[in-house]
Amino acid sequence: MTQFYLIRHGEPEWNINEQYKLKGHGRDLVPLTEAGVNQVYRTAKDERLKEAEVIISSPYTRALQTAAILSKELGLDIKVELDLREWQPDLTFEYDSLERLAELGNDYDANHG
């Protein structure tokens, strides 16, 4: 039987988005905070992960950084899966603020997807 362990990325450094005025997919380039890196190192010590055979990661920086730490600590290869990602609220890739992201999310909810 195949087992999957789903691990969420460590804490991202979201304030970089506002600092650099990142837009669209650029907003997904933020790295982990120091606390986020430490979260991943602690996660890598989970006994269940000793049985893992491969790490599958989304292409987002926060996920890849998490996967890289796990890969180093567990001695596993990483496969990047482009379809492993969050809902994309702005297919124009032009949103540039948390306010615009909230507006898009509210529109999604109001129209049931």
TrEMBL record:
It comes from Paenibacillus phytohabitans. Pfam families: His_Phos_1. CDD domains: HP_PGM_like (cd07067). This is Phosphoglycerate mutase. It comes from the Bacteria. InterPro entries: His_Pase_superF_clade-1 (IPR013078), His_PPase_superfam (IPR029033), PG/BPGM_mutase_AS (IPR001345), PGM_Phosphatase (IPR050275).
